[in-house]
Amino acid sequence: MDVTAIILAAGEGTRMKSNHAKVSHQILGKPMACWVIDAALAAGCTRVVVVVGSHSDEVRALISAAYKDTPHAAAIECVEQIERLGTGHAVRVALEETGIAEGPVVVLNGDLPLIQAETIRTFASTVAEGGHAGAILTFTPPEPFGYGRIELAENGSVNRIIEQKDCTPEQAAELTECNAGCYAFDGALLAAHVGEITSDNAQSEYYLPDMVEILKDHGHSVTIFHCDDYRDGLGVNSRAQLAELTGIARGRINARLMAEGVTFIDPAQAWISPDAQIGRDSVVWPQTHLIGACRIGEDCQVGPNTRLTNVVAGNGCTIDETVAIDVVLENNVSCGPRCYLRPGTHMLDGSKAGTHVEIKKSTIGEGSKVPHLSYIGDTTMGSGVNVGAGSITCNYDGKNKHATTIGDRTFIGSDTMMVAPVNIGADAITGASSCITRDVPDGALAIERSDQRVLEGYTERRRARL
């Protein structure tokens, strides 16, 4: 079944009090618009049309960045609603720009991040078989105030939509079906009649809900599709609602991961991206954030106080109080506490980056250790290396970055400065507090320090002088 999804993402979102588009605000590290796009793609929609308007360049850019290197890139397109004249006008712009004129069309809101793929798939099927020309996505939230209510005819078809401001107290109490603001249409009938929506209202806008009456006037049936999980229909219009839905999304993701064999010390204190994966028997400690497409293996300990972005980790890793961005950790790697791994870091099996260690764009060899208080940048390190405390690769000369290589089984003494470009061979040793500026051959000791002087009686002479 070829289904088209039209995602409305042109609104200003004034209640967010933001300098950015509402749909660009993130839930668990992913923009709201991308949550809806992902759900539509997972539902099997073969074409996703995003209608942009306010901050259109920003929204286009975030969508392009999210999908440019994925198999779905060709299925997603943006069209711009230059004049924002209402939801009906937005859908008409989408149809005119893309030529959509057949098959099921689902119209979704870009600020509905919790809608699930199965909901969209089943929703589209209500119009796919030709029994109905349109369908309204409905739900029953715990607090229905603010939502339009659906009045049904005796045969179960939609009689009318009563907006909150028009509801009598009796209708508000009796009518429990609320409009989630999403619609499914027979594409040909939508294209044929969307031009009949008028702007004869107080706001002089073209409202998509008017399609219900238009289709009915042409003798077509319009029905409802009720969400079993009311949370699918919750939208974001304020910062408070953004926080509320973030909490719901976190709960859904963590519950799924626990069902797959992951332990959470406190699920309310772990924020896991919808694109992240965690292997069974791994333990997630409080105040852990996994952002982007993290891949954590089995039997890992992650956290506490850890933020990982696009990190790939093998099995048996310990990642404690660590910030890591775009790095690869192989099996049984130990990081932290208070460790910073910057993009391009690759730590091989059994390696370690310890307390207050920063590593950038470097390969740490198998079993090699950078235990504490060191900076390693632009370095290729062999296996079995030990780096003493306070050692630094001086990789920047004020204009260019330079590389350091350290051979297998080499011992770097504490407080060694390695001034790049420099090569230190295998089985070598550097003396503590040395500044290494020249290459060191295999098996050599490199030591660079001034002679120690001892001036006996100095303290008494100094006191007398002062």
Word description of this protein:
The chain is α/β, with parallel strands linked by helices. The protein has two domains: 231 residues, Spore Coat Polysaccharide Biosynthesis Protein SpsA, Chain A (Alpha-Beta Complex); 186 residues, Hexapeptide repeat proteins (UDP N-Acetylglucosamine Acyltransferase, domain 1). Helices cover 21% and strands 30% of the residues. It contains nine helices and 41 strands. The strands form nine sheets. The chain has a seven-stranded mixed beta sheet, with helices on both faces. The chain has a seven-stranded parallel beta sheet with strand order 12-15-18-21-24-27-30, covered by helices on one side. It has a seven-stranded parallel beta sheet with strand order 13-16-19-22-25-28-31. The longest helix has 21 residues.
What is the average per-residue confidence, as pLDDT, rounded to a whole number?
A: 94
| CATH class (first level) name of the largest domain | Alpha Beta
Report the portion of residues in β strands.
25-35%
CATH topology of the largest domain: Spore Coat Polysaccharide Biosynthesis Protein SpsA, Chain A
Helix content: 10-25%
Strand order of the largest sheet: 5-4-1-6-10-7-11
**CATH-scheme architecture of the largest domain:** Alpha-Beta Complex
Distance between the termini: 92 Å
Total number of beta strands: 41
Structural class: alpha/beta
Number of domains: 2
Number of separate helices: 9
Shape call: elongated
- Determine the CATH superfamily of the largest domain: Spore Coat Polysaccharide Biosynthesis Protein SpsA, Chain A
Instruction: Kindly provide the radius of gyration, computed on alpha-carbon positions and rounded to a whole number of angstroms.
Output: 30 Å
Q: Low-confidence segments, ≥5 residues, pLDDT <50?
A: none
Tell me about the largest β-sheet.
7 strands, mixed
